[in-house]
């Protein structure tokens, strides 16, 4: 026997996969919360496809998110995002990481709620700021005081993200640890509902 530990427990991943069934797992939360990074690793652990809605939007439009915002404005972007999400959530199981504002849009939120189990990656301002300040690809943060903008977004959005089925605190620990917490939350939710 070797002593190399698995990064994410296979048994836990199997339990979570069973609990998920055919439903999608949808990550929501603010910019920098880790939806894309944690979503990808969670999909790998579950052995299901991973799709990032921001990437899918960029692929179908052949434009970057920044270009889309600049050319058509936020409202058009949200309409495109809702259409893309509807298609992505049609069949499962998949892990879908959404853009930070998707769950805030009423139409997208309805689709997300219908299309899967939602996990909110909750994070404190300083954690988010440390992560997002490294890149300038987020059009909503191109303001005079982007940290203040981020804080304003937290205030406005956190009560809405809190409607998620599950919440996991995203923080600066190993990403695998966050993935384990996500998988545990999925498996435990099933148990709490008496299906295990
Ligand atoms: N637990 C973690 N520890 C350290 N860094 C992390 C952790 N989780 C995510 N990150 C890093 O933080 C940055 C932002 O993460 P990510 O792009 O996944 O956020 P996001 O929620 O998808 O943001 P957006 O809404 O802008 O797409 C990435 O560089 C990612 O590698
Ligand atoms: O928080 C938001 O509203 C956004 C987050 C990003 O993922 C992108 O979807 C876009 O920059 C908008
Ligand atoms: Mg992302």
Automatic annotation (TrEMBL):
<dbReference type="InterPro" id="IPR027417">
    <property type="entry name" value="P-loop_NTPase"/>
</dbReference>
<comment type="subunit">
    <text>Monomer.</text>
</comment>
<dbReference type="GO" id="GO:0004765">
    <property type="term" value="F:shikimate kinase activity"/>
</dbReference>
<comment type="similarity">
    <text>Belongs to the shikimate kinase family.</text>
</comment>
<feature type="binding site">
    <location>
        <position position="78"/>
    </location>
    <ligand>
        <name>substrate</name>
    </ligand>
</feature>
<feature type="binding site">
    <location>
        <position position="36"/>
    </location>
    <ligand>
        <name>Mg(2+)</name>
    </ligand>
</feature>
<keyword id="KW-0067">ATP-binding</keyword>
<feature type="binding site">
    <location>
        <position position="157"/>
    </location>
    <ligand>
        <name>substrate</name>
    </ligand>
</feature>
<keyword id="KW-0547">Nucleotide-binding</keyword>
<keyword id="KW-0963">Cytoplasm</keyword>
<keyword id="KW-0479">Metal-binding</keyword>
<feature type="binding site">
    <location>
        <position position="54"/>
    </location>
    <ligand>
        <name>substrate</name>
    </ligand>
</feature>
<keyword id="KW-0028">Amino-acid biosynthesis</keyword>
<keyword id="KW-0418">Kinase</keyword>
<keyword id="KW-0057">Aromatic amino acid biosynthesis</keyword>
<feature type="binding site">
    <location>
        <position position="138"/>
    </location>
    <ligand>
        <name>ATP</name>
    </ligand>
</feature>
<keyword id="KW-0460">Magnesium</keyword>
<dbReference type="InterPro" id="IPR031322">
    <property type="entry name" value="Shikimate/glucono_kinase"/>
</dbReference>
<dbReference type="InterPro" id="IPR000623">
    <property type="entry name" value="Shikimate_kinase/TSH1"/>
</dbReference>
<keyword id="KW-0808">Transferase</keyword>
<protein>
    <recommendedName>
        <fullName>Shikimate kinase</fullName>
        <ecNumber>2.7.1.71</ecNumber>
    </recommendedName>
</protein>
<feature type="binding site">
    <location>
        <position position="100"/>
    </location>
    <ligand>
        <name>substrate</name>
    </ligand>
</feature>
<dbReference type="Pfam" id="PF01202">
    <property type="entry name" value="SKI"/>
</dbReference>
<comment type="function">
    <text>Catalyzes the specific phosphorylation of the 3-hydroxyl group of shikimic acid using ATP as a cosubstrate.</text>
</comment>
<comment type="pathway">
    <text>Metabolic intermediate biosynthesis; chorismate biosynthesis; chorismate from D-erythrose 4-phosphate and phosphoenolpyruvate: step 5/7.</text>
</comment>
<feature type="binding site">
    <location>
        <begin position="32"/>
        <end position="37"/>
    </location>
    <ligand>
        <name>ATP</name>
    </ligand>
</feature>
